[in-house]
């Protein structure tokens, strides 16, 4: 199995706080890896460390075998993005005063104006998220929460990416919107995209995940197949304190 992303012994400090305590994580190429764990386990910090927003104080982060993070190998976030890594933060990070089209244009490094956007890529995104076509000229700040999340994901996908990092995409969304997101991510999965998703919605995790890593207290305490975790109620209780079956 080829791993596109590998974290080995990664520690991250934020000021005086030691958040990650030796994270080991592998993300296979062309598959979906779910990063699960209780609140405060270090999941969001892991994504931000991969993206270079916070520097690893020890260990290494490697993308396609090349170091992008860790002492002596830390790349700035723009350089990591240039290597094809896209990040959708928990807060979405959209620009509310700009239109849907302007938000997407800002994320398209190869386009300076709307006419430069790849029309085939846009049609593909509209197929995943039809609301974006409908509200193309609307200020993004006027979209619903679910539509803003769709825009945040679409912005990460406006150009082909090697790796997509998404932090809690379903948080706070209505069940119908969550189903729309599951369908969109499932389409990416069919196209053999490489995704690392932090998620608290276990129905979504089970529907999408090929692999799972569970974090606790700044470490990965379990790694394996998502299907195996979904089938093992005792393991769910031990690692997460709840049963995936209760979230069907």
TrEMBL record:
<keyword id="KW-0472">Membrane</keyword>
<feature type="domain" description="ABC transporter">
    <location>
        <begin position="5"/>
        <end position="242"/>
    </location>
</feature>
<dbReference type="InterPro" id="IPR052156">
    <property type="entry name" value="BCAA_Transport_ATP-bd_LivF"/>
</dbReference>
<dbReference type="GO" id="GO:0005524">
    <property type="term" value="F:ATP binding"/>
</dbReference>
<dbReference type="InterPro" id="IPR017871">
    <property type="entry name" value="ABC_transporter-like_CS"/>
</dbReference>
<dbReference type="Pfam" id="PF00005">
    <property type="entry name" value="ABC_tran"/>
</dbReference>
<dbReference type="InterPro" id="IPR003593">
    <property type="entry name" value="AAA+_ATPase"/>
</dbReference>
<protein>
    <submittedName>
        <fullName>ABC transporter ATP-binding protein</fullName>
    </submittedName>
</protein>
<comment type="similarity">
    <text>Belongs to the ABC transporter superfamily.</text>
</comment>
<keyword id="KW-0547">Nucleotide-binding</keyword>
<keyword id="KW-0813">Transport</keyword>
<keyword id="KW-1003">Cell membrane</keyword>
<keyword id="KW-0029">Amino-acid transport</keyword>
<dbReference type="InterPro" id="IPR003439">
    <property type="entry name" value="ABC_transporter-like_ATP-bd"/>
</dbReference>
<keyword id="KW-0067">ATP-binding</keyword>
<dbReference type="InterPro" id="IPR027417">
    <property type="entry name" value="P-loop_NTPase"/>
</dbReference>
């Amino acid at each position: 199995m080829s791993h596109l992303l590998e974290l080995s012994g990664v520690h991250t400090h934020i000021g005086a706080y030691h958040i990650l305590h030796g994270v080991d994580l592998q993300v296979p190429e062309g598959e979906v890896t779910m990063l699960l764990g209780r609140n405060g386990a270090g999941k969001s910090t892991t994504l931000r460390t991969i993206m270079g927003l916070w520097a690893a104080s020890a260990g290494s982060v490697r993308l396609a075998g090349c170091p992008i993070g860790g002492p002596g190998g830390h790349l700035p976030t723009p350089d990591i993005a240039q290597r094809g890594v896209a990040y959708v933060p928990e807060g979405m990070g959209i620009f509310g005063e700009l239109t849907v089209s302007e938000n997407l244009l800002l994320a398209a490094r190869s386009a300076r104006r709307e006419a430069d956007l790849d029309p085939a890529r846009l049609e593909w995104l509209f197929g995943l998220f039809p609301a974006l076509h409908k509200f193309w000229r609307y200020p993004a700040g006027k979209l619903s929460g679910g539509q803003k999340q769709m825009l945040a994901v679409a912005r990460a996908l406006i150009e082909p990416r090697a790796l997509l990092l998404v932090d809690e995409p379903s948080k706070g969304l209505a069940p119908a919107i969550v189903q729309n997101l599951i369908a969109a991510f499932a389409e990416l999965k069919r196209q053999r995209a490489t995704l690392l998703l932090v998620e608290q919605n276990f129905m979504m995790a089970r529907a999408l995940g090929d692999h799972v890593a569970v974090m606790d207290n700044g470490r990965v305490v379990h790694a394996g197949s998502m299907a195996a975790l979904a089938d093992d109620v005792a393991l769910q209780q031990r690692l997460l304190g709840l049963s995936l079956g209760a979230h069907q």
